[in-house]
């Protein structure tokens, strides 16, 4: 059966950025906007997205891999990513469903590569293995001063009555997070065909609007018909 000439390919969009910049919120909002335009999409995250990858996520974020060093963590992330791509990302894209992921390969390059000091050769090799050609069509980097980001996280915790604990990476020093922020900006500058930086130092509604304008400009098929 021939594919309809009007059928557009499924898109793979990833969100990147430092801790506390609001990626999860904007992933949810983008899913709502896509649904309004009758676009079938799934939400996922890294590390995670599949049972095996979620087990690796728990191991890493609990700090159990920290003593092994950044190189070992990069390998663990790649193992989780390989399963994620094979079991969730690739099958959904193949059947025409968009995939929206909270973090992907750029996080490994920013955290373990540029900040952790893992050699580019290893990062590149792990990327080739895990991605198997599934490079994101668009990567949105949400950018915010980490000091402001953590103030917002602390304020939300107080408002929600939650204890402010922090995972393996959230507990790093502020200078570490400042380097991480710069790493994401550098990655975006070196991948201008795919990555776009959006300031997260504005209201959630304003960020959502900026993201939607970017997505519709990048993928004109979204304007083919009226929103549902």
Automatic annotation (TrEMBL):
Transmembrane segments: none
EC number of this enzyme: 2.7.4.9
Keyword check for ATP-binding: yes
InterPro entries reported for this sequence: P-loop_NTPase, Thymidylate_kin-like_dom, Thymidylate_kin_CS, Thymidylate_kinase
Enzyme class: transferase
Cited Pfam families: Thymidylate_kin (PF02223)
One Gene Ontology term from the biological process aspect of the record: dTTP biosynthetic process
One GO cellular component, as annotated: cytosol
Domain Thymidylate kinase-like: 15-211
Record's catalysed reaction(s): dTMP + ATP = dTDP + ADP
Keyword hit for Nucleotidyltransferase: no
GO terms of molecular function: ATP binding; dTMP kinase activity
Residues annotated to bind ATP: 17-24
Source taxon at top rank: Bacteria
Stated family: Belongs to the thymidylate kinase family.
Role noted for this protein: Phosphorylation of dTMP to form dTDP in both de novo and salvage pathways of dTTP synthesis.
PANTHER family: THYMIDYLATE KINASE (PTHR10344), UMP-CMP KINASE 2, MITOCHONDRIAL (PTHR10344:SF4)
Descriptive protein name: Thymidylate kinase
Biological source species: Devosia equisanguinis
Lineage of the species this protein comes from: Bacteria, Pseudomonadati, Pseudomonadota, Alphaproteobacteria, Hyphomicrobiales
Gene coding for it: tmk
């Amino acid at each position: 059966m021939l594919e309809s000439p009007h059928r557009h390919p499924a898109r793979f969009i990833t969100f990147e950025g430092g801790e506390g910049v609001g990626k999860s919120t904007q992933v949810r909002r983008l899913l709502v906007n896509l649904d309004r335009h009758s676009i079938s999409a799934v939400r996922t995250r890294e590390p995670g997205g599949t049972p095996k990858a979620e087990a690796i996520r728990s191991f890493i974020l609990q700090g159990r891999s920290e003593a092994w060093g950044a190189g070992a963590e990069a390998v663990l992330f790649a193992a989780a990513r390989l399963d994620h791509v094979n079991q969730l990302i690739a099958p959904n894209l193949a059947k025409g469903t968009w995939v929206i992921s909270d973090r992907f390969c750029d996080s490994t390059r920013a955290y373990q590569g540029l900040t952790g000091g893992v050699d580019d050769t290893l990062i590149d090799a792990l990327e080739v293995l895990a991605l198997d050609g599934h490079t994101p069509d668009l990567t949105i980097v949400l950018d915010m001063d980490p000091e402001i980001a953590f103030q917002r996280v602390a304020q939300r915790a107080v408002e929600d009555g939650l204890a402010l604990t922090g995972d393996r990476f959230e507990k790093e020093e502020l200078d570490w997070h400042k380097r991480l922020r710069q790493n994401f900006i550098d990655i975006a500058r070196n991948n201008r065909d795919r990555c776009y930086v959006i300031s997260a130092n504005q209201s959630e509604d304003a960020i959502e609007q900026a993201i939607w304008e970017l997505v519709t400009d990048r993928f004109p098929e979204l304007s083919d018909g009226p929103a549902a």
